[in-house]
Amino acid sequence: MSEVIFKPHEGAQTLSLSVSDTYETLYGGARGGGKTMCGLAWLLRDTESPKYRALVIRRNAEDLADWVDRARAMYPHAKVTGKPATITFPSGAVIRCGHLKDENAYEKYQGHEYHRIVIEELTQIPNEESYLKLISSCRSTVEGLNPRVFCTANPGGKGHQWVKNRFIDGHTPMKSFKDDVSGRKRIYIPATIDDNPTLINLDPDYVKYLESLPEPLRSAWRFGDWDVFAGQYFIEWNPNVHVIDEKKAIELGYEDSLNRRYMGIDWGFANPFCALWCQVTHKNTVFFYDELYGTERHPVQWAEMIWAKSKNQEINQIFGDPSMWARNPMSWKNPATQSYTDKSIADAFTTYLPNLVPANNSRIIGWQNMSQMMHFDTKTLPKFFIIKGKCPNLERTLPNMVRDDKNPEDLDTTTEDHAVDACRYALTHILAPTQKRLKEPVLQQQINKLMMPEPEDETVYDWNNI
């Protein structure tokens, strides 16, 4: 009588193993939902075919080693060889393993054919383009072997937002939906530790550990809440507060005649270029109201586009990426002559934008400044707003920013940070972080309190109805 190595629990695990008409499955959300074991079982389908080929991707070699150890137990009759491991079944079916630490990790499988791909910790992949490169090798020329992708993830990480957008936002959990372009189906199957009674029975203290975590970890790891995630840099960002329509902006002083206008520019050619326009009230409230964003345009082309957008406006100052002032004979090609020049990129801009100056590139001070301006509570309005629909890439990428693993005070530069860099360049020169006030002696505090006038009624902001 053969030993039962794994039996899926009713609910999320059973559903994930029974889905047969979807190209992409995202399983998980919370910690302890049995994601790895489910992925191991999911790979077993079709292993009786000698032509079956599958690929398993994990973040690094250490995580991959842990997965291989579990695979040895799950596949006792298979042979495991090599580093990264190759798992060969008696039928001749093969599962190959790989990790994402290599520089060419996302491209090296292109041209291969894998009928099934498992990607663990999907949110560690920084952008959707890299993910699409990986799954481009999930295809089949073998009749009866249909290509499928199985991903696991927890909220958080560099790729949190694109994973949320691709699988979760606007879709019903546990119900497949079609991609608008490819027509292929996707599904998100949420799972928590409650879906894994084996873990609860063997380690009941793990549930208590998850319950004891501080927010936002508790919401993310215990319940798989995708609306919050650990590691997010701008933790006070709230699109319901900071993204407003023009009518509300006017109420807050957007059309004040004393307003000053500024711009921030982050240079890019292959990487995205971003220019942002902002307006600052006499109360130092900042409204970002326009944007240019794109790739593969020469400096003169961007300068002309900015000039065209700004010609009816009085821009007080334009703050540019300091790298634009570097001089390199191969830095840019003049589109008129099709020849390279030894001028700096900034030289091409200043013909059209004479008030362009290098921005302060102090990253950490800049991020702290932005965070401070986003702060709000029931008695305080933020000083930072985006006019709805006017700066789509700033609005899209700002909440995705995560902390650098090695320097938590800074942003992770592998994310799509071009719009937030342009934002930082502008804001660093408009406002500076407030200084902490020194604590006064107790006697002086008492004197100040006695001399303080009666307070007026304070406004209490209802952020659900602002």
General description of the model:
The chain has helices at residues 12-18, 35-42, 61-74, 128-135, 160-168, 197-202, 204-212, 217-223, 239-242, 246-251, 299-310, 345-350, 363-374, 392-397, 418-428, 442-451; strands at 24-29, 53-58, 79-81, 86-88, 94-99, 116-119, 148-153, 177-178, 185-191, 243-244, 260-266, 273-280, 286-294, 317-320, 332-334, 339-341, 356-358, 384-387. Strand 3 (79-81) and strand 4 (86-88) form a beta hairpin. The chain is built from 16 helices and 18 strands. 29% of the residues lie in helices and 18% in strands. With 466 residues, the protein is α/β, with parallel strands linked by helices. It is globular, with a radius of gyration of 27 Å.
Quick synopsis:
The protein has 466 residues and is of the alpha/beta class. The chain is built from 16 helices and 18 strands. Helix 7 (204-212) runs antiparallel to helix 8 (217-223).
Main β sheet profile: 9 strands, mixed
* SSE-based structural type: alpha/beta
**Low confidence ranges:** 432-437
The span between the termini is: 67 Å
How many separate helices?
A: 16
Q: How would you sum up the global shape?
A: globular
Provide the β-strand percentage band.
15-25%
Rounded to an integer, what's the Rg over CA atoms? 27 Å
Average pLDDT taken over every residue = 87
Extended strand count: 18
Strand order across the largest sheet: 3-4-5-2-6-7-1-9-8
Which range best describes the helical content: under 10%, 10-25%, 25-40%, 40-55%, 55-70% or over 70%?
25-40%
